[in-house]
Amino acid sequence: MNIVQYIMVMILCHLACTISLTLALYESEKLHNDRANADPFLIAVYWTTHDYDLHTVASLQVVTNPFATREFSPVHQQVFANLKQLNAEYTRYAVWFPYPKLAVAELDPPSGIFQCGNVGENFSINLSCEQNGGVISQVDFASYGTSTGTCGQLQQGACHAANSSEIIQRVCIGQKTCSVPATSDIFGDPCKGIPKRLLIQIQCNPPQNNTYYNFNYLDTMLQDFLDATDGHSRIISFSTQPNWLFKLDTPHIYPDNASLTDWRYPVGTELVDDTMHALGDYYGRLVAWYTRGGFIDEYGRKHTSNYDYNWDYTEIFNEVESEHSMNVEFYTRAYDAVIQGIRRHTNNYDMKYVGMALGGHNEFGWYRYFLNHSNHAPDIPLDMISYHFYALANSRTDPNDWESFFSQLDGFTFEVEQIEEIRKILSPETRTTIDELGVILPDDNTPGAPQFPMVYWNAAAALYAYAWARISRQGIDVVGHSQLLGYPELPDLQLQPQYPSVSLLNWTTGEGTAKYWTTKLLIETVDIDNDQAVVTETTDLQGQNIFSQAFIGKNGRRWVLIINKRYANIDVFLPGCTGGQMQIINEASGFGPPTEVTLELSKITLSPFAVAVVHMPPVDIE
Ligand SMILES: *[C@@H]1O[C@H](CO)[C@@H](O)[C@H](O)[C@H]1NC(C)=O
Ligand SMILES: *[C@@H]1O[C@H](CO)[C@@H](O)[C@H](O)[C@H]1NC(C)=O
Ligand SMILES: *[C@@H]1O[C@H](CO)[C@@H](O)[C@H](O)[C@H]1NC(C)=O
Ligand SMILES: *[C@@H]1O[C@H](CO)[C@@H](O)[C@H](O)[C@H]1NC(C)=O
Ligand SMILES: *[C@@H]1O[C@H](CO)[C@@H](O)[C@H](O)[C@H]1NC(C)=O
Ligand SMILES: *[C@@H]1O[C@H](CO)[C@@H](O)[C@H](O)[C@H]1NC(C)=O
Ligand SMILES: *[C@@H]1O[C@H](CO)[C@@H](O)[C@H](O)[C@H]1NC(C)=O
């Protein structure tokens, strides 16, 4: 303890309590000791001393995955009801790649007058010449086996069912539509034990130009999201670009089954159309589909949706520095191109944009370049930037290990500080959302990884509350908890794991975990229009055991956030709290809302990783 701290504690004790200074000295000696029977830490609040203004909104991110869809999820209704109950602002909806059919509206490139299908065994190819009222007039190529290639350039593989073309001709010629299942029953088995696909190329009479838009899964999930967040600001991130926009040596084969993961979908580092016009068009059409009733496709044909949704912010891509190895010059051009594309197809100049969504660390060069307006086309807004943080762990099952989450977050605040310096110089009007903040345990996506103990939910909840509070001191606009629904391998539903430790909900019941209830507690408690932080000191001088920050509203409302950073019970003294109300989230509150307690003593016991909000009694009681 240095002399300044010594004096601070002297003053603090003098003003706020009668606890002797020896307590403070004593505490700093025995930080890592078992806290059983230890003396309580004192929390002293200087209610009249302004610390900083509160600007930081607590929010969350929702990521597309099959377990949140109407089609695949038994807890679907519960999931969206829980989202609705949060009444969150700035919720980020990430339409994300590991399930290409859920995330990409145009999975196959436009193919002119050739129409192609390419599916794995036991799926069906659906052909149609109905666009111009035509019929299937020609089968250019058909092969059940191991053929490959892109539409217009299909190539027969070593394994090929000799009668493929004949069969397709027999079934499809002269038909308006035709659906052909890729099965060995129909084509015979040309190579037993080898995975087979069916590839077909046809033409129509009269000729038609072909595109492959399919919004089925995107629509239902986005509708559910927009309904659940109606009336609130939201950030929509169609984070995944069709990978055929990039130069690829061989076409990428995505899973036919919408609920299977494809972690390798974002491939390619160079765009086919280097002007980025095609990239902008893809996003323009996508946004027009949802906000302008439809769009005009690559060949001038109208596709009608009748949707006229709206949202405030569109975020452009996600963690591209890892996914497509984009550098900042490339990304910045792409950001501009996407905005121009959206404007071209929607004529909407009011949409706001969120840029970067960086997942890496200390990438300050990105901020220096992107936030410099002279690196953008004219009339391109820099409304908001975004970036991400996850605390990591060494152990999936040992709660002692999770005490390290908090110091990792401390490290992140230094990064936030440096980003803020850059932002304030280059583009002070640009706001910030840290739109993925959470914890990822080791082996999270390994099938059969051990289930973490329930107190994990509390450790991760405490980390989020701590992050919100620490980052609120830095004036960041939004801190979004990641993410609404993850799950482990679910063999009954044939689902592969999807970051279970990141989930805010219990995937079995759809109920909120401590992570969910902590987000809700902060959303409901924080009042950025009225609250300011006031100077708050504790006798836990290194801050290794507890965190506390007090806030006071213009209306006199006073509240104190207290977080137990330890996997141990910790007692605190909060002078003046007697008669106040505490909402506490801990192991005992489980999958329910915070436990509400009327405080009869100024001593409060916090169980491991507990998060508490104490609403102080009206001032005149003191
Ligand atoms: C396709 O279905 C058949 C018959 O049900 C089955 O024997 C075969 O294993 C399936 N193939 C694949 C790749 O799932
Ligand atoms: C073809 O149509 C059937 C029936 O509508 C559908 O179940 C199947 O998913 C479609 N196949 C493809 C590849 O879209
Ligand atoms: C292919 O067609 C020929 C003649 O039409 C027929 O004899 C043969 O059985 C067919 N082969 C398969 C695998 O269906
Ligand atoms: C197909 O698209 C091309 C290029 O946009 C256009 O020139 C052609 O007329 C179209 N053909 C049909 C049949 O629509
Ligand atoms: C902004 O970018 C321009 C053009 O790249 C450069 O000349 C200028 O020095 C940059 N400004 C700052 C403050 O870095
Ligand atoms: C696709 O996945 C779902 C969910 O995992 C499963 O129920 C279904 O059987 C799968 N379909 C096929 C054809 O493999
Ligand atoms: C989900 O809730 C059920 C019922 O309360 C509980 O038995 C189960 O352990 C919970 N699962 C997780 C991963 O929290």
TrEMBL record:
This is SUEL-type lectin domain-containing protein. InterPro entries: GH, Lectin_gal-bd_dom, Lectin_gal-bd_sf. Residues 119-205 form the SUEL-type lectin domain. One of its GO terms (molecular function) is carbohydrate binding. Keywords: Membrane, Transmembrane, Transmembrane helix. The chain crosses the membrane at residues 6-26.
